[in-house]
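User: My advisor, Dr. K., asked me to get a structural model of this assembly before our group meeting. I'm new to this, so sorry if the format is off. These are the inputs:
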Amino acid sequence: MLQRTEGIVLRTTPYGEADLIVTFLTKDHGIIKVFAKSPRKVKSRFGSSLEPLTCSRISFWGKEDSALPRLTQADITHVYSSIRESLSGFLKVSELIELTLYLVPERDRSRNVFSLLMRTLALMEAGPAEQLITLFYKLKLLDIAGFLPRLQSCGRCGGEGDAFHLMQGTVLCGNCCTGDGQVSRLSRSARTFFSTLLKWEMSKLHRLKPAEGIIRELVVLIDEHAQYVTEKNLRTKSFRVG
Amino acid sequence: MHGIIENLINQLTRLPGIGRKSAQRLAFFILSMPESEAMSIAEAIRTVKQTARFCNTCFNITDNEICEVCSDDSRDRSRIVVVEEPSNILVIERSGAFRCLYHVLLGALSPIDGVTPEKLKIKELADRVAAGGIQEVVVATNPNTKGEITAQYIKEVLAPLGVKVTRIAYGLPMGSDIEFADEVTLSKALAGRREL
Ligand SMILES: [Zn+2]
Ligand SMILES: [Zn+2]
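Assistant: The format is fine. Below is the predicted structure of the whole assembly, which you can bring to the meeting.
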């Protein structure tokens, strides 16, 4: 049957001579992969609609549970071109997309990752504070996927603690800490800022002006944590500019 | 069906654009060909697979250390056209628009697929430019996101070398109708307009 939804292109993989497998994050079906016939030909009717970070109204054809439905139409509604056209912006977003693909299963429609990503891209397009925006996205995504680390207080007794245990995914206090494993210390201001971020509204993100050191502390910890829970080294992380 | 014919059909379906039906037609055609003709196809495949290699300088396909283009002294040797794949050279050569040197990257950057600069022949390009004698590098990677990101990366890498770096223009495909162009292609074509 023919299905219609809105979606944004996360990734494309060439297939055969001129075909593509396109991974969309959609409003109604979560992450889906569709087959697109000949978009790489110059006179394709898909035009540039299947390039990464393009939002479209799409139609695809296939059984309800078809593994690879066929894309029949894509009408562009928005292109995040300013992000896509800057090397550093594209790298930042690629990292978010890669993490999303690792954390969110295909066809999982219960979780509102679509609106989270769209709002994040809109913020990134609007202006600076890229680091804070991407950190916020990662936290929300980890929360949606059920992997949010606990940094506010000891994960066992709720007491004060500053030692983050990677394998437990939580901060533990001196009394509850048993055994070994990788531990990172986290400053009090970073822990406080983390709690603030969790309750903060995305649209008011620009009102937060934390010290750069605090963000850096959290970014490092969240990246380590994300790598641990996904058991993946983010490919985009190994990409260095200059 | 006979095992040997079935096998040939299966092998042929590996080729791009060849479905089961076409593969059957080809297989039976090959069967009906004179032996010498059929064997020369097989021989050509064998030769190309055994002797084809990448040019030491530009990574074009060649059967020598240095490809025909690189060893052709009648070319403009102050310009390098950068392409993603060796097959792109063939297309540009056929257009006859440029008679200069090439550099094949053997792909385009794609962070999410793990295609990082080290996986492409970007450092080799910088080395060629650094060796001197190059006035212009024309980046002719594909007009899509991966090609564009690659072009920007090359620009950054070559910037300290003080060489002129240009990008092929975006335009509408010849023979097409403006009405059917999508907005991104159209806006790029407008931005890249030239005086008549
Ligand atoms: Zn405790
Ligand atoms: Zn060569």
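One thing worth pointing out at the meeting: The helical segments of chain B are 3-12, 20-32, 35-51, 86-95, 122-130, 145-158, 183-191.

User: Perfect, thanks a lot.
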